[in-house]
Amino acid sequence: MTTKNATIKDVAREAKVSVASVSRVLNGLGGVTPETQKIVREVANRLNYIPDNAARSLITGRTHTIGAVLPDLYGEFFSELIRGIDLAARARGLHLLVSSSHDGVADAAAAVRAMRGRVDGMLILSEYVDAAFLEENLPEKLSAVLLNSPVKSARYPVLNIDNRAGAIAMVQHLIETGHQQVAFISGPKTNFDAQQREKGYRAAMTKHAPGMPLTIVDGNFTEESGYRAGRELLAKKPRPQAVFAANDMMAIGCLYAFKEAGIDVPGDIALAGFDDILIARYITPPLSTVQVRIADLGRIALDRLAALLNPADSTPASVETLGCDIVIRESCGAKKGSVAAPNKPRRSPRPSPT
């Protein structure tokens, strides 16, 4: 038979199930066995069946689209995060709509408002989002999961990286490797991840290098800011023995500044970053870093949002923290390949409303 104008009845006939079963599978409504779901999706793909999304939305009240509002779409971190979200969404038959909010709170509000009515739920990662922002810009019935956020709300689950523990582990490693004077390149002042990583640096220095002065230079998570910070650190007297950057992009910029000045890494200065973006293992020397499983962060966030969209799921809002490891490569001067014991993911109970 021709598949050019296949209908839902054609899919049902070929799959040997009812039209209602096909509808439930393609609309993600549940109540159908995994075996039947597999058959229906295979037949729908083979027949090139394209649902009438407008009509389907009128019937189900759902768009089968998820929105993601991110600070930026540039760089390996965000491309990997989007990949993790998109793979998980596609596995559930969902589409992904992405927007950025890098120009301030008004831009973030515009991005969120533009998605209302177009998506069934949202993933939001933005330094501009607090409880008041959510109250003003998100309809009460629109589900959302917050990523890397200090917000504590009974309505919105939060998925965070254990930035503080990761930073503590890396600074402790640098000190135990013999580098007492560890400098830190900070991230944006209003960024939650950057704040937590700086707190980890301060805590580790206080505990493991008591009396050693803290050296903190400003950065904004870009390679250029890491380059500027590297030049600034080279001018300090005494020069630090090690540099820990709040993300890998800044560490790479810093490395370039050191190489430009003829400074050997790790012979003259040890260097480490945070995130473990793909390029970190391919630069020279390969970069020691705190490993964030970025694609997993996106996948888990989408899973949490999908659970909210399921009426049968009554899981309360929570703050879940994902652990991270440190990956030791040549840039810090220690034996490469060793990995710190993993921090286990943990979930706190339902937070109090703010």
TrEMBL record:
InterPro entries with a match to the protein in the record: HTH_LacI (IPR000843), LacI/GalR-like_sensor (IPR046335), Lambda_DNA-bd_dom_sf (IPR010982), Peripla_BP_I (IPR028082)
Entries under SMART domains matching the protein: HTH_LACI (SM00354)
Originating species: Dyella acidisoli
Residues spanning the membrane: none
Name of the molecule in the record: LacI family transcriptional regulator
Stretch list, region Disordered: 334-354
Domain HTH lacI-type: 6-60
Record-linked CDD domains: HTH_LacI, PBP1_LacI_sugar_binding-like
Any Pfam family the entry gives: LacI
Biased composition (Basic residues): 344-354
Matches recorded under SUPFAM superfamilies: lambda repressor-like DNA-binding domains, Periplasmic binding protein-like I
Lineage of origin: Bacteria, Pseudomonadati, Pseudomonadota, Gammaproteobacteria, Lysobacterales
UniProt keyword list: DNA-binding, Repressor, Transcription, Transcription regulation
